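To: structure subgroup
Subject: Chain for Friday's discussion

All,

I'm putting the inputs and outputs inline so they're searchable in the archive.
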Amino acid sequence: MHSRKTVTAPECPVGESHCTVINEVIALREQVVTDPLTGLYNLRYFHQALEQELERTERTRIATAVMMIDLDFFKQINDTWGHEAGNDVLTSVAAIIRASTRRLDIQCRYGGEEFVVILPSTERRLAVQVAERLRENIDAAEVETAGQTLTVTASIGLAFHNADNPDNASGLVASADHFLYKAKREGRNRVCYPAFESEEVIVCGEERQALGSMFADQTDNDEEVFEGDWSESDWS
């Protein structure tokens, strides 16, 4: 579950006696934007956050990516093992999504067995690497439920908002959805995205630090440019 903010007594602007009330209001606001099953943000929050990130992209000129994720053959899990088993799979996949993406990313449940992640300030090559690592982690996972060990795969579609592709929010979601279903048509358990030519990927120091253990070669540079091939060692 995404972290919830609380106010401690010394921080309370209207006195300690009101601290509990303020925290209750914060908790209620969190409930409004949180999916109760997975603890990820819900569809309502996704739309709000996407508009904000696209505005940020217009100011900074640094791309934003949207990653649509759909679990393959999920209906068969519900039909064979029941909806409780299906819920266990959904919560397990949600945990994998949180663990496979960065703290600055915005992870949401889109509905049913579909998830969506906003990747702020993320150039295309880096977004593809995040998506591929997520797909691999879902593919490798085992879910213990209903006395069985279940596995699941995911199809992922990526879309990008930048100076060359200034889609609005609805257009960006439609593009990500298009490539998601392209992944389905091409055999599932894969990542599909718009073709792009070789390009530099710029990652500022703050974003690089946020990647945490997904990078083996952390540096303290304020800005670094990555060129050439992306190898598995970059993400070990």
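Points worth raising on Friday:
The two ends are 25 Å apart (CA to CA).
The longest strand covers residues 64-71.

D.
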